[in-house]
Write a structure and sequence with these properties.
about 525 residues; alpha+beta; Bacterial polysaccharide co-polymerase-like; four-stranded antiparallel beta sheet; two-stranded antiparallel sheet; 6 strands; about 5% strand
């Protein structure tokens, strides 16, 4: 499969190469046309001239450092900021208009001038002027202007240099220096107000979300865990008290069970009669496929047993009535007089009190736990807000402390700047000069680009004609397309006048060499002028 693909690509390249060769004269005509047109356009491009001026900012720190000793640990403020701002301000519309009025382009700014032309000249000039530092740490700046008329570029740079203040530039910054101290004090007061406001917001938030926010440390889940552990601990205590209570009750029942009951003999006889009645009622016989009781409820023996049981129950009730009504049971009095029984009864009452208090505490803890769990859904938002408020407060405090610590140093620096800015001046190191040689455009580069573009355009035209006017280059291609056997080929010979010259490869190569020769000739021409 891979071999077929490579062969197919090779045949395709071969077919297109043959097709482009058939249309080589179209390719040559297009290449010549594009190159000549492009070279003419390059020749009409206007020359560009560049005028520059080098300006230095005189920094008084250098002189002060040389006098006080540059080897010490002295740190001087940068007092040239305003001078740098003035230099960058040369590109403003106001300064550009002032400079243009001093040049030959000033006619565009006379009364009655076209507004559109004026705006065009201003826009073009602003794009042609540049003010840049010689390097990142240098106090030397280069003012340059590019134009196709050397006199105008010289005039523009000279006018911009003349706009620079020749005396101290500190006057324009004096107002800012005078208000710097006031700004520092105002900034400190603003930060104090912000800190107080942040503290108030944080305190209000803690009051509103006291169940979530803990002052002792530990977050929401730590408090939930502590509550659960406390509930489990109290529940364990409750189980211990319940076990103790049951043990006390058991001991009291044991002591009560040792007393002689006044109805014990009646209870025994009633139990015997009930057992006998159950045995009689359990006896059955079969009749007509049904199981019937041998002693039904109407049997005389059953009625007699029930009457006896009822009589004994009445005797039992009569015998135990004095104990129920007045507590006159002498056995019970004897039990109450027993010190061991009284101690057990007192301990049981104390355990009941402790259990009641413990159950109340557990209920209270469970209510708090339920309330905390109900707030779990809004927990992320509350925690994020609490963290944001704390970070904001800490940031404001740190910012205020830093500002207070540096307040004295800043005021000292402001005093130095206020005095030293008065000595900042501009010095013209290199005034502008009239340029005689253009710096652009780079015609050799443009000529080469046009040549390459012309050749590529010719190749594209030949390929296009090869695609839109296909022919059969081989008998195999014709056989595959038509599906018919090809018996042979017949060569064509054109004997018309001039056809030999058209078909000549030498003439084509001479035309191509002529194209490169024309390129070299034009290139040498522009290098000599």
């Amino acid at each position: 499969m891979q071999e077929f693909g490579v062969r197919d690509i090779y045949n395709l390249v071969f077919v297109h190469a043959r097709g482009m060769w058939r249309h080589r004269w179209h390719m040559m005509l297009v290449a010549w046309f594009v190159c000549i047109s492009g070279w003419i356009a390059v020749s009409f491009m206007k020359d560009q001239y560049l005028a520059t001026a080098r300006v230095a900012i005189e920094d008084p720190n250098i002189d002060v450092a040389s006098v006080l000793g540059a080897g010490g640990n002295l740190a001087f403020p940068d007092v040239t900021r305003e001078a740098r701002r003035v230099l960058q301000g040369l590109l403003s519309r106001e300064n550009i208009v002032k400079a243009l009025r001093q040049t030959d382009l000033g006619r565009y700014f006379e009364d009655g001038a076209n507004e559109m032309e004026m705006e065009r000249v201003i826009s073009e000039t602003r794009s042609q002027v540049s003010v840049r530092a010689a390097d990142e740490q240098s106090s030397i700046f280069v003012i340059s202007h590019r134009h196709n008329v050397p006199r105008i570029t010289f005039q523009v740079v000279s006018a911009l240099v003349s706009l620079l203040p020749q005396e101290s530039v500190g006057g324009s910054e004096g107002g800012k220096i005078q208000t710097t101290k006031e700004f520092i004090h105002e900034r400190v007061n603003q930060l104090k107000d912000k800190v107080i406001e942040a503290q108030t917001r944080l305190r209000d938030f803690e009051k509103e979300h006291y169940l979530i926010i803990s002052q002792e440390g530990g977050g929401y889940y730590a408090r939930v865990k502590a509550l659960i552990e406390k509930i489990e601990s109290e529940t364990a205590k409750g189980r211990e008290l319940e076990a103790r209570r049951l043990e006390l009750q058991k001991q009291m029942r044991d002591m009560e069970s040792r007393l002689e009951s006044p109805t014990r003999d009646l209870d025994r006889r009633i139990q015997e009669l009930n057992q006998k009645l159950i045995e009689l009622q359990a006896k059955t016989y079969a009749k007509g496929g049904q199981v019937l009781p041998l002693y039904p409820d109407t049997h005389s023996d059953v009625i007699a047993l029930r009457g006896a049981i009822a009589s004994l129950e009445q005797q039992k009730l009569d015998r135990s009535k004095p104990t129920r009504d007045g507590g006159d049971d002498p056995n019970l009095w004897q039990l109450e007089a027993d010190p061991v029984y009284r101690k057990l009864k007192s301990s049981l009452g104390q355990v009941d009190v402790e259990l009641g208090s413990l159950h109340a505490r557990i209920s209270e803890l469970q209510a708090k736990l339920a309330e905390l769990k109900s707030l779990e859904e809004g927990l992320p938002t509350a925690e994020n807000e609490y963290l944001r408020l704390k970070q904001n407060l800490e940031f404001l405090k740190a910012q205020m402390m830093e500002l207070l610590n540096r307040k004295g140093q800043t005021e000292f620096r402001v005093d130095i700047e206020e005095s030293m800015t008065k000595y900042v001046r501009f010095a013209v190191l290199e005034p502008p000069s009239l340029p005689f040689h253009p710096i652009g455009p780079n015609r050799p580069l443009f000529l080469s680009v046009v040549l390459v573009g012309g050749i590529l355009a010719g190749l594209a035209m030949a390929l296009f004609l090869s695609v839109v006017r296909p022919v059969f280059d081989t008998t195999a291609t014709m056989k595959n397309v038509l599906g018919l056997p090809v018996l042979g080929t017949v060569s064509m010979f054109d004997d018309r006048p001039g056809m030999g010259l058209v078909e000549s490869r030498v003439f084509f190569l001479l035309s191509l060499a002529g194209l490169f020769g024309a390129y070299l000739g034009i290139l040498m021409f522009f290098r000599l002028i």
